[in-house]
Amino acid sequence: MKIDGQTVTVKGPKGELTLTVASPIEAKLEDGQVLVTRPDDERESRSLHGLTRTLINNNIIGVTQGYSKGLEIVGTGYRVAQKGAGVEFALGFSHPVNVEPPAGITFTVEGNNKLTVSGIDKQAVGEVAANIRKIRKPEPYKGKGVRYAGEVVRRKAGKAGK
C-alpha cells in the first residue's frame, strides 16, 4: 500500500489498483492502517469521507480476495458457451451474441446455463455483469432471460383464457 498525495495505490497477490481521493479528503497510512480524514463537517465532506473509505476498502478486498458475480441463463434453448477468453450466448435471437471480457475481467462457464464474472475491481465486475444481463433481462411471465445468481424474478399471471 502506497499513498502519494491524493493517489492511493494498493498492491496485493491478485494485482494492483489505484484510486484518486477527492480534494477535501485526506488519506494517511498509520501503522498498517489507512486513516481517512475530513477537514470539516460540511455535507459534501461527510459524504465523500464515507465514500472514500469504502472505495479504499473495496480495493484492498479486491487485490487480496477478488470479486465475482454469478449469472444464470433461464429458458428453453438459452445457453452460454466459452469461446476463447470470451463467451457466446444463445438467447433466442436469430444470431449468437459474443461477449469479450475487458482487461482485468475473466469469465468462467459452468454447465451451459451458469456464468461467473470475476476480477479485482468491484465496479468493473458489477458493470460487466449488468451489461451481460441487459442483453436479455428476465421477463415477468415465463422468467426467461439472464439473471443474477439468487435473483428473485417477480412473476405475473398471463391473460386469462376463455
Features:
single chain, 2 domains, 38% strand, 162 residues, 22% helix, Outer Surface Protein A, domain 3, alpha+beta, four-stranded antiparallel β-sheet
Describe the structure.
With 162 residues, the protein is α+β, with helices and mostly antiparallel strands. It has two domains: 2-65, Ribosomal protein L6 (Outer Surface Protein A, domain 3); 67-148, Ribosomal protein L6 (Outer Surface Protein A, domain 3), CATH 3.90.930.12. The protein is 22% helix and 38% strand. The protein has two helices and twelve strands, in the order E-E-E-E-E-H-E-E-E-E-E-E-H-E. It has helices spanning 43-64, 122-135; strands at 2-4, 7-12, 15-20, 26-30, 33-37, 67-74, 79-83, 86-90, 97-99, 105-110, 114-119, 145-148. The model has no long low-confidence stretch (mean pLDDT 91). This protein binds to the 23S rRNA, and is important in its secondary structure. It is located near the subunit interface in the base of the L7/L12 stalk, and near the tRNA binding site of the peptidyltransferase center. Keywords: Ribonucleoprotein, Ribosomal protein, RNA-binding, rRNA-binding. Pfam families: Ribosomal_L6.
